[in-house]
Amino acid sequence: MESKGKKVWKFLLKSGILTWAAFLLIWWILSLFQEDILLPGPLKTIAGSWEIVANGKLLSFALISMRRVFIGWGLGCLIGIPLGMLIGRIPVVRSFFEPFINFFRFVPGLALITLFLMWFGVDEGSKIMIILYGTVFTVSVNVIAGILSMDQNRIHAARILGVSERDILFTVVWPSVIPYAFTGARLGLGGAFGAIVAAEMVAAKEGLGYLIYNSRLYFRTDWIICGVITLGLLGFTFDKLFRFLGNKYLKHYGVKELKNA
Amino acid sequence: MEAKISIVNLCKRYEDNEKEKGLFFSKNINPDRVFDGKEGYVLRNINLQIKEGEFHVFLGASGCGKTTLLNIIAGLLPKTGGEVRMDGKEINGMSPERGLVFQNAESVLFPWLTVKQNVAYALKPKKLKKEELEKRTTEAIALVGLTGHERKYPEVLSGGMRQRLQIARSFASDPEVLIMDEPFGALDAQTRMVLQDELVGIWKKTKKTILFVTHDLSEAVLLGQKISILSAAPDASIVSYEAVPFSYPRNSEDSDFVQYTAMLHRKLNAAILAHQNRPEPQSTQTAG
């Protein structure tokens, strides 16, 4: 039997409460030795940020950023998954795309931002395209890996039963690839958060990236920190939700939530 | 009577284009394996007739080319030379008429489908009516003794049950010949004994032709009506062909059984030794 104290300790540790309490504490201690303009403490940050919370600016910026993220990421998954399957399944397509992929893998979306601004406009188009670009790569590379590593016996077994190639694609290959597509989408979402902030810093009048970058002009370090925390919380929440859904509906495909992750 | 499966002068060597195509679904096959310093034939001059309804066992050491032979009969691999016929017709590619049971059930069952759905999947290409589908699925599940587990996922089944499920899936599509590649090789001894008995039962009930590969001499004698003993690759061929003189059910502890197995063991060793010490084969097959 575990003692009650031990149980409480375990709960605090596993739920992350302890981590965040320690973080806040260290933040607060550090802030005592700094000017507010460099590092406002937790309470001062909340007080200072109340302004943008109350006037709805934070919420609207967050919604704008998330809208860009989810359109770009969603489209990226929709393109990346079938593209990855084509490349993975058809050797000719694979040979054709391989050099291309290995070249652009080292060109981050951010490097293309000026080109995308010219091509797709300074508004939503360029930001969505940057996210889409990153997501397509991440997702398709994972799907390709999934196809290449899948057990060929599964396909042979279906072929021997007389299942058509088209049915094999949808009833054997695709379900086998789901865990990889899932991982790709998760990683892609992380990348999308990075890309949107960068894109909004360079060219935007709204959004969390704009908030974080622009607040420096008003010496509002508390707003910067508030933007960073909002971003982290959103990412954390969506990832948690995504994993929860994956675990709930895709468990039998091999998508499993890591313990304590 | 015309043989069900007829193999004449079958030869096999792995060609470069097969390696590229990644035809090597079996992790047991390494196409780049070099035999005695040269890339040689895996199988050479295999001759065999298998009757309809026969339980035929291929016995040979690991890596001797048994799996290659089965895969050629199944139609998964092209042959290099010779003939392989079923009912007089040349075997050309895979067919639902020849079911294949793989050694590793996990690799071929669909983890996202339940036991019942896995079995029903085998009937998918037949586009049956719902009642017929239901009936045949239920029958196949009952045949391997998985009734009551229909709604479980393969993940929660034991190794033996997974193998039963794979056998049920193969039987559901009603193949004429069932090819089994060391299906019990990865199971514990207890489970293996139970499944061996059940397989004999299923075979007697369904009267299918079964081609069964094993490296286990005792299993071969326990199951097979006929045993083909293969020598080791390169140039594996059938070095001995035995008609097992026992009726079913067999008991591996009977003194007759033990004696017979020991005799076969000596024969097997002698044959493999003789094969290894044979003179270099004539250069009739240097093409390729």
Secondary structure topology:
The complex is a heterodimer of chains A (261) and B (288).
Chain A: H1 4-15, H2 17-32, H3 42-54, H4 57-89, H5 91-104, H6 113-120, H7 124-149, H8 152-160, H9 165-202, H10 208-214, H11 221-249
Helix pairs in contact in A: 3-11, 4-5, 4-7, 4-9, 4-10, 6-7, 7-9, 8-9, 9-10, 9-11, 10-11
Chain B: E1 5-12, H1 16-21, E2 43-50, E3 55-59, H2 66-74, E4 81-86, E5 89-90, E6 98-101, H3 105-108, H4 115-121, H5 130-143, H6 159-172, E7 177-181, H7 189-206, E8 209-214, H8 217-223, E9 226-230, E10 238-243, H9 255-276
Parallel strand pairs in B: 3-8, 3-9, 6-7, 7-8
Antiparallel strand pairs in B: 1-2, 1-4, 4-5, 9-10
Helix pairs in contact in B: 4-5, 4-6, 5-6, 8-9
Main traits of this protein?
heterodimer; A: 261 residues; mainly alpha; MetI-like fold; B: alpha/beta; Rossmann fold; 2 domains; 10 strands; 35% helix
> What value does the average pLDDT of chain A take?
90
The CATH class of the largest domain in chain A: Mainly Alpha
Anisotropy-based shape of chain B:
globular
CATH architecture of the largest domain in chain A: Orthogonal Bundle
Oligomer: heterodimer
| Main beta-sheet annotation of chain B | 6 strands, mixed
Percent in helix of chain A: over 70%
Major beta-sheet overview of chain A: none
Query: What is the string of helix and strand elements of chain B?
Result: EHEEHEEEHHHHEHEHEEH
